[in-house]
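hiii so um. not sure if this is the right channel but i have a protein structure encoded as C-alpha cells and i wanna go backwards to a sequence. like what aa goes where. can anyone help
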C-alpha cells in the first residue's frame, strides 16, 4: 500500500516547483489578527497600547475591568503588574544599602497608584509624613500635587507616584548621589514594570537623576525628553511652589503641554 504522506509530499513539491517556475520567490506566512479590546474614553489616562500577549504583539488595555467570569487580557496584565510591584516592594522593605537611612527610617515608601498608568509622577524622597504613612506625597506638597492632578481632570488613582529614594533622608535633606545610585535599580524596575507613556519629574533631583544630566531644571522644563522611549516632562517640585507661589504659573504651563501631548482636554485658564 502506498504511503499517503509520501504521495502528499510529492504533490506538494510539484506545486512548489510550478510556483517557482512561474516566478514566485516566497510564500508569505499567514498572520493571525489579534482583535483590539474596547478602550476607555473617560479621561484618556488609563488606556494605552501595550504588549501583553508576548514580544512583537500588541493589544489595548483599559482600567474598565470586565466581570471575573470573563476577565480581559488587560485586567490580567494589570493584576500581574501589581503582583510584580508587590514583590519588588517587599525587597525594598528589607533594603539596607544605605545603612544610615535604613537605621533612621520608620518604613520604606515604595510607590502608590495605578500599575497600568499612562502617567507617572516622579519625586525625590519621602518626608516626615510619607515616612510615617508609607505613601509618597501625602504632606503639604502632596496635597498640592493632588490639586495639580485634579486640575488636569485626573485623579491620584489614575496615575502612579514614586520617588527616587525609598527612605526618608534625615532632616529632609537632599539625597546624596550615592543614595540615589543605590535606589536606582528599584525605581528603574518600577518604571519598567509599569511601562508608562509619560513621566513627569518633580524637581531638579528627580529630573537630573532620571535623565543623568547636570543641566538645571530651569532649562530642562518646558520641553519633552526621552528615557527608554518614554516621554519625560520636567517641572518644579510642589514643595518649591509652596515657597515660591509665582512658579505655579510655569508648572501649569508644563501641565498643559503634557496633557495636550497625552490627548487630554484641559479646562481653560
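sure thing!! here u go:
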Amino acid at each position: 500500500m502506498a504511503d499517503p504522506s509520501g504521495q502528499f509530499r510529492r504533490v506538494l513539491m510539484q506545486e512548489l516547483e510550478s510556483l517557482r517556475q512561474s516566478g514566485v520567490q516566497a510564500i508569505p506566512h499567514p498572520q493571525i489578527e489579534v482583535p483590539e479590546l474596547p478602550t476607555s474614553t473617560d479621561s484618556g489616562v488609563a488606556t494605552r497600547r501595550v504588549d501583553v500577549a508576548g514580544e512583537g504583539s500588541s493589544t489595548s488595555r483599559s482600567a474598565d475591568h470586565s466581570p471575573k467570569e470573563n476577565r480581559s487580557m488587560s485586567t490580567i496584565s494589570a493584576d500581574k503588574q501589581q503582583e510584580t510591584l508587590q514583590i519588588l516592594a517587599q525587597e525594598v522593605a528589607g533594603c539596607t544599602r544605605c545603612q544610615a537611612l535604613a537605621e533612621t527610617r520608620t518604613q520604606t515608601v515604595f510607590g502608590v497608584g495605578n500599575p497600568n498608568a499612562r502617567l507617572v509622577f516622579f519625586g525625590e524622597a519621602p518626608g516626615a509624613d510619607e515616612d510615617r504613612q508609607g505613601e509618597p506625597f501625602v504632606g503639604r506638597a502632596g496635597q498640592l500635587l493632588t490639586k495639580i492632578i485634579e486640575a488636569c481632570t485626573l485623579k491620584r488613582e489614575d496615575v502612579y507616584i514614586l520617588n527616587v529614594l525609598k527612605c526618608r533622608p534625615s532632616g529632609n535633606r537632599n539625597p546624596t548621589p550615592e543614595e540615589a545610585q543605590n535606589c536606582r535599580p528599584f525605581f528603574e524596575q518600577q518604571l519598567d514594570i509599569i511601562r508608562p507613556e509619560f513621566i513627569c519629574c518633580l524637581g531638579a533631583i528627580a529630573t537630573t537623576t532620571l535623565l543623568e544630566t547636570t543641566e538645571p531644571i530651569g532649562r530642562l522644563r518646558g520641553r519633552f525628553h526621552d528615557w527608554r522611549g518614554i516621554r519625560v516632562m520636567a517641572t518644579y517640585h510642589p514643595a518649591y511652589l509652596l515657597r515660591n507661589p509665582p512658579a505655579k504659573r510655569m508648572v501649569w504651563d508644563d501641565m498643559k503641554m503634557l496633557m495636550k501631548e497625552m490627548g487630554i482636554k484641559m479646562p481653560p485658564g
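oh and The chain has ten helices and eight strands.
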